[in-house]
């Protein structure tokens, strides 16, 4: 039975002028000012932390291959927050939610998925780096050359942007119901899919394919890397050597669990279990809290990053004295 309350996506003149209404946290009107201040402070601290790590890594002339991945991770987190947080802050300044155009919503979704996917692929590259460092230490510098790391980084970005483009096009080709009120603070895929009129599981197929390529497959590769790493650690007789080798993996493991845990909870489930309130809370974690935690995790757990940061701060202090 055709949906009487749908707007077909092939009506290009309508799509060009169509707008969505991001409701944001309209149900928490009494907390708008507090939420705005919290988000603003978290956003500024996140930007400062990631910029500091990026600057410290770039200024280090003899940086190991892993630093190149950390540098790209900081850039991704910077872009990630800039795509989402400004619109979130804007939605907190208006009572009835903020509007976003059809094209603007599609662009935000594409960038969000692309950056999140690039991070998934980058975590695979970082797990491979740890695998080579622990399982093939004598060949580490030969395998993880600067050129190879650059190719890996480019492949991560190009692959994720291509998959995100396919997902975004597939979602926005679906017919939308006349109510264009997105009960979210940004154009997340499940929230937009919830507005489609198409029945059955067909609207979820593009999202399922993207989840397999961006979440399940990368996580499987990371799991295989750590199985090999665990096997290699068992053959290290020295407990000190084993502890030192494992400590280099802790930061990567922590970030992997944070990123994949939140993403899996949001995306790998049927449309029928969609819960706006629950999704918004989890989305808050991976769009605001997680990018804030990354610089803290790396600066607290990684000795080389701490050394580089101290070196950068000393340079800055000397420059101020001069």
UniProtKB/TrEMBL annotation:
Keyword Cell membrane carried by entry: yes
Membrane topology, as annotated: Multi-pass membrane protein
Compartment(s) where it occurs, according to its Swiss-Prot or TrEMBL record: Cell membrane
Pfam families named among the record's database cross-references: 7tm_4
SUPFAM superfamilies found in the cross-reference section: Family A G protein-coupled receptor-like
UniProt keyword annotations, A-Z: Cell membrane, G-protein coupled receptor, Membrane, Olfaction, Receptor, Sensory transduction, Transducer, Transmembrane, Transmembrane helix
One GO term describing the cellular component: plasma membrane
Positions of the G-protein coupled receptors family 1 profile domain: 49-298
Principal subcellular localisation of the protein: membrane
UniProt GO MF annotations: G protein-coupled receptor activity; olfactory receptor activity
Matches recorded under InterPro entries: GPCR_Rhodpsn, GPCR_Rhodpsn_7TM, Olfact_rcpt
Annotated TM spans: 33-59, 66-85, 100-128, 148-172, 207-234, 246-269, 281-300
Family the entry assigns: Belongs to the G-protein coupled receptor 1 family.
Protein name: Olfactory receptor
Species of provenance: Amazona guildingii
């Amino acid at each position: 039975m055709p949906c009487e309350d749908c707007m077909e996506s092939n009506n290009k003149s309508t799509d060009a002028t169509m707008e969505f209404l991001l409701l944001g946290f309209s149900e928490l009107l009494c907390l708008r000012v507090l939420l705005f201040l919290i988000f603003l402070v978290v956003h500024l601290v996140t930007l400062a932390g990631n910029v500091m790590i990026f600057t410290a890594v770039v200024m280090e002339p003899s940086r190991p291959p892993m630093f190149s991945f950390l540098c790209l991770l900081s850039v991704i987190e910077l872009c990630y927050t800039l795509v989402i947080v400004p619109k979130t802050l804007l939605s907190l300044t208006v009572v009835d939610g903020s509007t976003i155009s059809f094209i603007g919503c599609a662009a935000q979704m594409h960038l969000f998925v692309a950056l999140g996917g690039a991070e998934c692929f980058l975590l695979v590259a970082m797990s491979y780096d740890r695998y080579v460092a622990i399982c093939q230490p004598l060949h580490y510098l030969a395998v993880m050359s600067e050129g190879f790391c650059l190719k890996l980084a480019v492949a991560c970005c190009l692959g994720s942007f291509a998959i995100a483009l396919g997902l975004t096009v597939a979602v926005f080709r679906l017919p939308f119901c006349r109510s264009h009120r997105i009960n979210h603070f940004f154009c997340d895929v499940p929230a937009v899919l919830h507005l489609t009129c198409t029945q059955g599981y067909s609207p979820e197929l593009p999202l399922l394919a993207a989840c397999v390529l961006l979440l399940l497959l990368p996580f499987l590769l990371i799991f295989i890397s750590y199985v090999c790493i665990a096997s290699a650690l068992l053959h290290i007789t020295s407990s000190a050597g084993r502890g030192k080798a494992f400590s280099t993996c802790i930061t990567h493991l922590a970030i992997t669990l944070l990123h994949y845990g939140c993403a899996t909870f949001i995306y790998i489930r049927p449309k029928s279990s969609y819960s706006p309130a629950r999704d918004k809370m989890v989305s808050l974690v991976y769009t605001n809290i997680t990018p804030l935690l990354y610089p803290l995790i790396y600066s607290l757990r990684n000795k080389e990053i701490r050394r580089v940061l101290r070196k950068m701060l000393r340079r800055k202090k000397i420059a101020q004295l001069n």
